[in-house]
Amino acid sequence: MKTRAASYFGRSVGFYIGLVLLCIFAVFPAVWMLITAFKQNQDLYNPNNNPFIFNLPPTLKHFGFLFTQTNYPIFLWNSFFIGIIVVAITLVLAVPAAYSLSRLMGHWGERSSIAIFLVYLIPPTLLFIPLYQIVTTLGAANTSLWNH
Amino acid sequence: MVDHLEQRSKAPDRADLRRPGGGKIGDGVPPPHMPRRIGIADRDGLVGTIMLAPAVIYVFALVAIPFFLAIALSLSNATVGDPTIHQFVGLANFISVVHEAAFMFALRNSIIITAATLILLTVLTIIEVEILARDFHGKRIAEILLILPWAMPVALAAVGWLWLLDSEFSPIDWCLRAVGLLGPGTILGPANNLYYLGREWLGLGAIVVIDVWRMLPLSTIIVLAGRTAIPNELYEQAALDGAGFFRVLFQITIPGLAILLTVAVLFTVLVIFGDMTVVALTTRGGPGYTTEILPYWAYLKGIQGGALSQGAAVALFLFPVLLAASILALRAAYRGEGR
């Protein structure tokens, strides 16, 4: 028969082990990317080096490469541009619809919101083949908004 | 007139109280229409329809039309070179895709990955929720760390994992070598590396771990909301009665969480089963076709391979599973609200 104190101690140990393991699992890939970003190539490409410490001094070379040798500014701009447009369209369409469903449509609102939810569940994977077909038919494949 | 105004002002409240599937829908008596001049802005139904229309049209154009087009494509002989539908070939595409070995691998792996992710995710969600339901020092920091995978875009996360599971420079392999489990003459040896993404079952395992990793924050948040709703008296009573940890877990916590856990789990099915990013960026379906999954195979076949109609046929195999999962998720959600 375990005493109360022993059982409390056992639970605390289990609790902290669980907490620490889950936290490591959650952050490890990100931490590993972060360490890698500042390591020198010779350090990275030696399988005998301890991967978690800087065996050679840290470097900013990779960031220099990113900003000078790649089209990173364009990628950044594209992500930013797409993000803004998507948020804008979503808000313009969704806010009036949400108000309408919750305040004005009553009973029909509930049914429609279920229907909208179901639509959301159709995965993009199922849709991208026909969407690709539409895009090709419209002649827009492999073009951007600006450079045709 | 006063009566009428009162009725109108009450109407939205009543709409709030109604719950879908909660059985109270029928009791809402519509306000009696008194004769009075009504402008367009007063006609809730009309304004509602106008406000709803843009969203419905958008969804119809970008989801419903492509969806029916997918069905039409799967029954036709369209290719990327000639994407217009000239001729319907019946079920020929379905028959020919089912006869490919790669399709069978894809179907098997989609089911295995989804099922394994579900089981692991359910267990880890319960553990994480139990941890976060308590108060401890540094809880805010722990919460931020635990939510981190959800804040990372899928593609970025997959690239991170790709490097983490690298065939030569994986730090996991380094740790295993350091403790003497990997390398010549050890249990996992004789090679110096495990080649996580280059073997059938390790590759599938890696995909499951990545999927669990990125879905865990969401399911924890969903289920944690339910955990805080379980009255504390139940736990106090159980403690007084001398119930042990597992007894409390299985007889109070898990039954109390059942509905939200079902919602979280089914939502995960929808995301994991239809997603191809992780596989496309890590194993790429290899070695051979042994870690192929349905969405990625549909992409390879339909867009990379140019057989639009066959790709659409493969993608349509996703639909019955997703439909079943969404119906179950909705039913579980409404059952929860109805209580």
Name a few traits of the molecule.
heterodimer; A: 148 residues; mainly alpha; 73% helix; 0% strand; flat; B: 339 residues; 14 helices
What do these coordinates show?
The complex is a heterodimer of chains A (148) and B (339). With 148 residues, chain A is mainly alpha-helical. Chain A has six helices and no strands. Chain A has helices at residues 4-37, 41-44, 61-69, 72-104, 107-120, 124-137. Chain A starts with a helix and ends in an 11-residue tail after the last helix. The mean pLDDT of chain A is 79. With 339 residues, chain B is mostly helical. In chain B, 69% of the residues lie in helices and 0% in strands. Chain B has 14 helices and no strands. Chain B has helices at residues 2-17, 44-74, 92-98, 101-132, 139-151, 154-164, 171-178, 200-229, 232-240, 245-274, 277-281, 294-304, 308-316, 318-338. In chain B, helix 4 runs parallel beside helix 8 and helix 4 crosses helix 12. The longest helix of chain B is centred in the middle third of the chain and has 32 residues, at 101-132. Chain B is flat and about 70 Å long. Chain B starts with a helix and ends with a helix. At the A-B interface, helix 1, helix 4, helix 5 and helix 6 of A face helix 1, helix 2, helix 4, helix 5 and helix 6 of B.
